[in-house]
């Protein structure tokens, strides 16, 4: 924290940048969860990419149009509304990590997943990358109805 000549605190450039990043990310996150696509898109860079982490065929990098297609398909696998609760945010300059909990019903049963979503902003203050971390195995079981078989290992 800096002080001006009249002893009033002055915010550092990094603090101002972090606050701007937080505002942009929260606006985009809330718009995405509410299905307000145009509001979300207004916070994104032209070259926006969405990355879904994991080992499944859907775990890859998407451009905007592919992301919309994926999001629409995701929504079609739910029984009822998207139920995601915002839990917190960590921000450092042009990067933010949002933590959220998903509590929904999918075609394969109860779908409860925890999310960590990393947002990276460009120099213009627009989101250029959104990278989502979650349990892709749970996603496959509860939303895609896939039965995942794994060999149980024992300590013998």
Describe the structure.
With about 160 residues, the chain is an alpha+beta fold. It has one domain (about 1-140): Nuclear Transport Factor 2, Chain: A (Roll), CATH 3.10.450.50. Helices cover about 30% and strands about 35% of the residues. It has helices spanning about 15-35, 35-40, 65-75, 135-140, and strands at about 1-5, 10, 45-50, 60, 85-90, 95-105, 110-120, 125-135. The strands form two sheets. A six-stranded mixed beta sheet has the order 4-3-8-7-6-5. The chain has a two-stranded antiparallel ribbon with strand order 1-2. The longest helix has 22 residues, at about 15-35. The protein is elongated and about 65 Å long.
Topology:
Blueprint: E1 2-3, E2 9-10, H1 13-34, H2 37-41, E3 44-52, E4 61-62, H3 64-76, E5 84-92, E6 95-106, E7 109-121, E8 127-133, H4 136-142
Parallel strand pairs: 3-8
Antiparallel strand pairs: 1-2, 3-4, 5-6, 6-7, 7-8
Record keyword descriptors for this entry:
single chain, 156 residues, alpha+beta, Nuclear Transport Factor 2, Chain: A, six-stranded mixed beta sheet, two-stranded antiparallel ribbon, 4 helices, 8 strands
Provide the residue-averaged pLDDT: 85
Largest sheet entry: 6 strands, mixed
Shape descriptor: elongated
Please trace the helix and strand order, writing H or E for each element.
Answer: EEHHEEHEEEEH
* Overall helicity: 25-40%
Structural class: alpha+beta
Beta fraction: 35-45%
Distance between the termini: 59 Å
> Could you give the count of β-strands?
8
Instruction: Could you tell me the CATH topology label.
Output: Nuclear Transport Factor 2, Chain: A
Which architecture does the CATH hierarchy give at level 2? Roll
Total helical segments: 4
Look at the structure and give the CATH class: Alpha Beta
